[in-house]
Write a structure and sequence with these properties.
Layout: H1 3-22, E1 37-44, E2 50-54, H2 67-77, E3 83-85, E4 105-107, H3 108-118, H4 121-132, H5 135-148, H6 171-181, H7 185-191, E5 195-197, E6 208-210, E7 221-229, E8 233-242, E9 245-254, H8 257-271, E10 272-278, E11 283-290, E12 296-301, E13 305-310, E14 319-322, E15 325-326, E16 334-342, E17 345-353, H9 362-366, H10 370-393
Length: about 400
Amino acid sequence: MSANQALRFFLTTSFFFSFLLAHSQNPNTSAPPNIRSKSAIVMDAETGFVLYEHDAHTPRHPASTTKIMTALLLVEHFEPLDIITAPEDCEKIEGSSLYLKPNEQLNAKDMLYALFLRSANDAAHAIACAIANGDQEFANLMNERANQLGCKHTHFTNPHGLSDPKHYSTAYDLALITREAMKYPLVREAAATRSAWISRSINTKDTFLKSKNRFLFEPGAEGVKTGYTREAGHCFVGFKRENDWGLIAVVLDSEDWLTDTQTLYDWAYANYERRIVFPEKTIMGKALVEDGKQSSVRGILEKDFRVIARKGELLGPPEIRWKNLIAPVHAGDEIGKVVFEKDGITFATAVLAEKTIEAAPFWQKAQSTPIQASICLLLFAMMWSFYKKRIARYK
């Protein structure tokens, strides 16, 4: 067995037995959460790992949870202080409203707050017109972005979520969209805000926004968006953090969206855990370095390597995937990854070079393989022969 194989065997077995010792109790077998939503899901915000799902891929009316995608496109197209002008037809938009006047101007940040706190359909329409000259063209952008995120059962026809037979999404797809949107600090800020003052150019008496999202009063709640139409029923997309672990929960067509959401989070945090398998700076072994002054470099873990599993669940070993390295290798360079795959999700953390490995001089490289050594000897013999002939000529 080679040194590399021995190291890999050691890491594999030590990983396995660390699980065996730390999690040797029987797997948790608690019943699924008792909810009254037609579709539901709980997803890890960082990796997309699904902790629970119920009919999560069935297309349904998303109502105003649609505005999460509108918010995502808004922050991807505008800076916070960029000005958005309301279109001439803004007063014709039905439902919840910011009561925009034609040609009224707000900055993009205030429009974002209007989406989350007032759930303003006219603000969503104004954003669509500013980005894509109308709802239909904007819906095309929404669908293109949804496809990029891996949404397979989503089709938008408008930016606000008013009912349309061709406007639909799923609990799973809405979780994917939310996962991407919440990567933006401005979206996280707006989604978690209970009330705010905004600035506007015309309707200056309506500048105080107050969210009706009751979930924001829950400990650790960070958003995100309620939704309701007669066709959709009560819908909600939530984001909650407990012990610095963020989870997204979605309920569609729920008889009691708040209770269902609370139940999902209680169940998820009680039944699952985010395990630190190897802490940050753990030495993960040595990676081979070609043409270096040293033949290998130690790899250290960039950050905690964590996986998500049910409490008490035994897991197999991870894999260390080393890169093919050619000197020079600099300290801090990524030289590999620790990888663990579970239920279609890959958990991975980078392994970094502990120190710099400089390139070896030519003579040292020449000793590294028989072929290179033979070539070096041949060149030396040719040079010596040439030198002897030169000396003989001048005698």
